[in-house]
Amino acid sequence: MVKKKLLTLAGVVGILACGACFLPPLPQHKPAPPPIRNGLDGVQSIRIEVVNASSSHHLVPAVLAQKIVETINEQSWKTKVNAHVGLGPRSEDATLVITVLSETVEPTAKAGHMRFNIEDSAKLMRPDGALVWKETETANWIAYNVDGEKEADAWKILGWGGVDKELSEKLVFRMFFGR
Description:
Elements: H1 2-20, E1 45-52, H2 61-74, H3 76-79, E2 82-85, E3 94-107, E4 113-125, E5 131-145, H4 151-154, H5 162-177
Parallel strand pairs: 1-2, 1-3
Antiparallel strand pairs: 3-4, 4-5
Helix pairs in contact: 2-5
């Protein structure tokens, strides 16, 4: 009987010494994260339309629409939404219509530094007319260093897409991620 107890005790000590207590812990597998929801209720493809209803017409609707498409498509790995510019309906899940309401620019206290204020409204609607997302009369303040001190000089930077790109990034961020 003592032999059996000693043999059992030796077996327990051997098991503990060889693995139960001295091996590194087994790796813990984390569950896959849930897919990122874009908050747009299943919208995966968006057609972009831009209208410039301001009196000055500095922003070119086609250029701004293309910048918005590029910004949405740059985020598509995260949002699972793609965009395209188009005039007629295709197989998109929704249409984003952006209306530029006003475009102003003013100098700041810093020489050569201008502040743009672009006010817009936007609606994202499904083909059946259901409203998915909207914003109305949103002010977008964008500051840039520009050559010259006049307002006309400030709008020249649109050539490389500075204001267009900045505006598109602000609008897309609000649409996907809220304010």
